[in-house]
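#structure-requests
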Amino acid sequence: MADSTDKALQVELVAADRLVWSGQATMVIARTTEGDVGILPNHAPLLSSIIEGVVDVQTAEGETWIAAVDAGFISVADNRVSILAERAEMSHEIDLEKARQELERAKGAGENDDAAQEAVRRAEARIRAVERAS
């Protein structure tokens, strides 16, 4: 009988200041600069940039964990997935009302301001993470 870990990915979601989530998963979905990428066990090696968005982790126990991440990197090799971002938050850590207020504030800061546009993308990702987890 095959060991159940043969069909699992070892996943680490890391922010600049902390380990956000670590565990075994059967699938990871993240948004790269080229579009969404789904990672399953035995995926080909991959190193890519990720953009502000949502990371979806399907655990080996059948749970779904959703996180909002800033731009960073994803690395896949030998059934190990590392997602490194400056900031990352699990959906249950996000205050939805506060995220909506941040979105409105960022939108009011101006469309021609790069920092404001980055803040808009970050707030939208946080809101999507909470909504997808609900």
